[in-house]
Amino acid sequence: MKLVYPLNIKNDFVFNSTPRDFTVEEIPLYEFTGEGEHLVLKVRKKEMTTWEMLDAISNHVGIRRRDMGYAGLKDKHAMTIQYISLPAKFEEKLDAFSHEKIKILDKVRHNNKIRVGHLKGNRFEIRLKKVLGVQKDKLDSVLKWIKSHGVPNYFGNQRFGTDGNNWEDGKKLIEGKLKIRDRKTREFLMGSYQSYLFNSWLCRRMELTLLLQEFSEADTEKLMKLPEGSLKGSKEQKNFFKLVEGDLMMHYPYGRLFEVEELSKEAERFETKDIAPTGLIPGTRVKRSAATARMLEEHFDEEIKMNGARRYAWIQVTEIKKNYVEEKAHYELSFVLPKGAYATNVLDVLRGNAS
């Protein structure tokens, strides 16, 4: 069975990252209890960062920003709905809070402060414009592919700053060629370089996968400069993204990390969306892959004095809904992604340029 990645299906559409055309809503990890010493706010914001929103609320009630809790950072250029927490004793002061870019939609008590990562995922609503004629059918076709197979889990452009080069300063910091005193700025830039290395690795794995679509394992080994036999059992896999010996997998959408032992067996579990492969965010206290996977990973691994991690290389797109408004040539789309995943990955596949 040959699986063709929709790179050859080029779609022309207009997407503007504005509050009118782009909405992100957090999906909480669990229901809030309705009692406790913390107050959880469901907040809608636009045209401001999460930090700016937290500052506006914390300054109003008279607390430090670090006394507030949040689950994730949300895009400045979207309409975003997210959950934050603060000590419940400040509830009365919120009654007088008013801000043109922030609206508190709901309040509920809870036992704990919200922590970073306490999310199931995010729901995205996107409006694509100038979708004319055959473009609508092409988008339908690619969406069907995405629903069946998923998308690569690259870090989004916003991770790398306005000019896309934050990672360069992060690299200089790691190499000792740049000095920055502020710890948070330093860690942000170094984190950008970690993300760059992950994306570079994933690009390499996508190249391998696409080569296996067209060539034999032996020819792909030569093209990728891998030892003979290192890709044995990869081409025959039914899933699009090909696993290799030594890959580190995680149960999906969250769970335990483990190494591939029987390639065909784990490939079948990956196809059923029970597990997914991971890539390396280099740093300390993180497990490295082995065998063929390590050969592909080691070129993007560096000594970085920050905690490393394993990140899903491939993710599923769920709860996909679409609506075509013919008279306006608008293609309205909504879907859910796991936490830490970027909507740009879906948009790139829809455009046909996510290699």
Automatic annotation (TrEMBL):
Protein EC: 5.4.99.27
Active site: D75 (nucleophile)
Catalysed conversion reaction: uridine(13) in tRNA = pseudouridine(13) in tRNA
Ranges for domain TRUD: 150-315
Keyword annotations: Isomerase, tRNA processing
GO biological process, one term: tRNA pseudouridine synthesis
InterPro entries, per the entry: PsdUridine_synth_cat_dom_sf, PsdUridine_synth_TruD, PsdUridine_synth_TruD_insert, TruD_catalytic, TruD_insert_sf, TruD_pseudoU_synthase
Positions in coiled-coil regions: none
Similarity comment: Belongs to the pseudouridine synthase TruD family.
Function recorded in the entry: Responsible for synthesis of pseudouridine from uracil-13 in transfer RNAs.
Protein name (database record): tRNA pseudouridine synthase D
Source organism of this protein record: Sulfurovum lithotrophicum
